[in-house]
């Protein structure tokens, strides 16, 4: 039996901490005008997704317990008037709500000292990833697991791998992070991801129940040409950007870059974020977001430092309408158009 709490307005965020402030799903009058749809038509042409926010540590079991709890306690919205509390089984949660839940980069492990991530790195058929495959299968839900420490080509390197698992527990696709974070952060410390990570070389998109997904990881966000390829060459509809943004870069650039990627590609963006203090030496910005193709934030946790889930609907009619009324795919110039200017 589900216990229900009636809300006076739609609710799109679940936090594991009690909070009083909520962010309802956002849909502007302009977007309604673009689609010309009623609420019932919108519901018929949409599918629900969820994005998690968490603080991973250097404890595989603890992090899996957090991910499992977020999946199993996923609050499900029925007609946007109720939020279900105390769901008794994970299958009830998944069947009533989201078809995909996205977790942030380093969901399984964040090391407290240099070398720890290399020590726990495993192949995708190892016991760590198989736990998450079982979770997806038992919960009948797709999982986006961004930034798994996959064993690399040698003992000194791993791969930062984004893994998508279907609701049968099968790995449907993987993407290895292309752009590695070798950066000096003002007022913080230097990062050199390439010292222990093998860069990926392939652009990856995969079909799913929530549309065609474009897979990326964190620092990729700063390179718009990757997202242009995903949209215009690989026909992505939803861009996944799991991340572990630093606090200074998150404050300055996180939301701006995410909204830019959504607007310039006319895609939904799902950005699951690590948050808070992982260890004495490392903390993350947080602020998990779901953004529609018009650049509107439609999913966000009330507190960017909390552990929890935000949900939103992928509205295919809205996506198609925006792309039809502003056909940038037709207006784009071919690559050979951009020849060096004559002096």
Automatic annotation (TrEMBL):
InterPro entries reported in the protein's UniProt record: C-N_Hydrolase, C-N_Hydrolase_sf, Nit1/2_C-N_Hydrolase
- Per the record's keyword annotation, is Hydrolase included, yes or no? yes
What Pfam families has UniProt attached to this entry?
Answer: CN_hydrolase
Enumerate the spans annotated as CN hydrolase domain. Answer: 47-316
Q: Which CDD domains match?
A: nit
Query: What are this entry's molecular-function GO terms?
Result: hydrolase activity, acting on carbon-nitrogen (but not peptide) bonds, in linear amides
What Gene3D superfamilies does the record tag this protein with?
Carbon-nitrogen hydrolase
Matches recorded under PROSITE patterns:
CN_HYDROLASE (PS50263)
Keywords for the protein's UniProt record, in alphabetical order: Hydrolase
Protein name from the UniProt record:
Carbon-nitrogen hydrolase
Organism of origin: Trema orientale (Charcoal tree)
Q: What lineage is this protein's organism placed in?
A: Eukaryota, Viridiplantae, Streptophyta, Embryophyta, Tracheophyta
């Amino acid at each position: 039996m589900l216990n229900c709490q009636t809300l006076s307005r739609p609710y799109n965020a679940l936090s594991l901490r009690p909070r009083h402030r909520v962010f309802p799903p956002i849909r502007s009058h302009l977007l309604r005008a673009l689609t010309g749809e009623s609420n019932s038509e919108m519901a018929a042409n949409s599918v629900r997704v969820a994005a998690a926010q968490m603080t991973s540590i250097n404890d595989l079991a603890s992090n899996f317990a957090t991910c499992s709890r977020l999946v199993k306690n996923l609050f499900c919205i029925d007609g946007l008037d109720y939020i279900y509390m105390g769901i008794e089984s994970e299958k009830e949660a998944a069947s009533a709500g989201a078809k995909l839940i996205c977790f942030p980069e380093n969901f399984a492990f964040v090391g407290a000292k240099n070398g720890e991530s290399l020590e726990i790195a495993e192949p995708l058929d190892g016991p760590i990833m198989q736990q998450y495959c079982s979770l997806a299968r038992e919960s009948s839900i797709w999982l986006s697991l961004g930034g798994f420490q996959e064993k690399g080509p040698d003992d000194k390197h791993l791969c930062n791998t984004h893994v998508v698992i279907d609701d049968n527990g099968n790995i449907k696709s993987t993407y290895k992070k292309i752009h590695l974070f070798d950066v000096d952060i003002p007022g913080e410390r230097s990062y050199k991801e390439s010292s222990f990570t093998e860069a990926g070389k392939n652009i990856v998109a995969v079909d799913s129940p929530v549309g065609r997904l474009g897979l990326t990881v964190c620092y990729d966000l700063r390179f718009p040409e990757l997202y242009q390829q995903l949209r215009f060459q690989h026909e992505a509809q939803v861009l996944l950007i799991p991340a572990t943004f630093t606090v200074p870069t998150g404050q300055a650039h996180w939301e701006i870059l995410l909204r830019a990627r959504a607007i310039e590609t006319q895609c939904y963006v799902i950005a699951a974020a690590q948050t808070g203090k992982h260890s004495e030496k490392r903390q993350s910005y947080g602020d998990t977001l779901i953004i529609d193709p018009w650049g509107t934030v439609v999913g966000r946790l009330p507190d960017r430092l909390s552990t929890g889930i935000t949900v939103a609907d992928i509205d295919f009619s809205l996506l198609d309408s925006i792309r039809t009324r502003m056909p940038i795919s037709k207006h784009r110039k071919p690559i050979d158009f951009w020849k060096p200017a004559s002096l």
